[in-house]
Design goal:
Blueprint lengths: L1 H28 L5 H23 L6 H14 L2 H13 L3 H29 L1
Helix pairs in contact: 1-2, 1-3, 2-3, 2-5, 4-5
Length: 125
């Protein structure tokens, strides 16, 4: 039962964080290019890389944190389905190059963020 509470808590925090980050980024940078989703996805990669590296290195950490952070928080915070919809919408509207730049930036930056998060987790463990 405890794991479900941690997933629910993480999910609630992740969904609120997604809304706050997405709204703030869109208000500052506009909505023509999906900057908010891009920043959310890259920061989610950083957080999951960091949290899983730390959790994997410290067996003494309460296993419930696996439910709280990578499953609950990141599950609600990350926006892969939104990412896919935005690509689809850009392609349908003829914004081919925006879609290509967005896919490329997301994949390359996401892999770099996961690696940086894991390196940070390793360094701090």
């Amino acid at each position: 039962m405890q794991k479900y509470l941690f997933i629910a808590l993480g999910g609630a925090l992740g969904s609120v964080a997604r809304y706050v980050v997405g709204t703030n980024v869109s208000n500052r940078m506009g909505i023509r290019f999906p900057y908010g989703t891009l920043i959310i996805n890259i920061s989610a990669c950083l957080i999951i890389g960091f949290s899983l590296e730390v959790l994997n290195r410290h067996a003494n950490v309460n296993p419930a944190f696996r439910y709280l952070i990578p499953i609950g928080f990141i599950g609600a915070y990350s926006t892969f389905s939104t990412f896919e919809w935005e690509i689809f919408s850009n392609l349908n509207s003829g914004a081919f190059w925006i879609a290509i730049v967005y896919v490329t930036a997301s994949i390359v930056s996401g892999l770099i963020a996961v690696a940086l998060g894991a390196a940070l987790g390793k360094a701090l463990s």
